[in-house]
Amino acid sequence: MSGTNSERELIAEGPAIILVEPQLGENIGMVARAMANFGLAELRLVNPRDGWPSEKARSAASKADHVIDGTKVYDTLEDAIRDMNFVYATTARERYGFKPVRSPVFAAATLREKFKAGEKTGILFGRERWGLSNEEVALADEIVTFPVNPAFASLNIAQAVLLMSYDWMKSGMDDVEETRFQPVEQRPSTKEQVFGLFEHIEEALDARGYFHPPEKKPKMVDNLRAVLSRRGFTEQEISVVRGVINSLDRFPRKHSKAAADSADRPSADMTGPGALENDVEE
Fold it and tell me: I need a surface site. Which of 36, 121, 173, 202 has the fewest CB within 10 A?
């Protein structure tokens, strides 16, 4: 889903994302993209397998260059979190220990509070194949785990970062139902505009021999109007429909061979089962 707009404010704040021994540059790039989607910007790598920098990571980041350019690399996890006040470790596996286990919503709210208080925080993510070791989890303050299918709990690293980043973004919203943009405001049509649409369509259809045989025209008109008035049109929608009809009117009407052939053909498609006149009960 495309939505990059360099003219709008770029949100770049919050906890650091720390990847422990990531393997593929493409995965790092997708992590950077997920972070940028939800306003995170600080990425730390612990001993990346293929080194750094990585053009594969930059390509996969889909223009999240501010995250890629600011990425820092560390030899050990201890070095990567040495300056932090509070750290979460993410895991989908059951761990036996004394650390509190939090949901992403709770963890995001905690991180938001600490961020506002000026504390430096981070979230640990483990290797693509087997995650974090018990020793690495022990370096964190608390654990955050995702509500996943217990029989299939393996998450792609970028997916895990995306989920956590999403909850981080929501934790800063006054209303979680708020959206970043709204549909174009439209005015409801008046009945006069609807009547004009009826007349426009009926005149265009009549000119092309649609109401055939003639004795069925009143019923077909009633059914057509019932369909067109089933929901409330806006002014813009009526303009669109009438624009379509005006476009069709640029072609010949009743004197065209196609219109004449249509009028002479059997009218089963207009009067048989499923036809327009049968859509509304007597």
Answer: 173
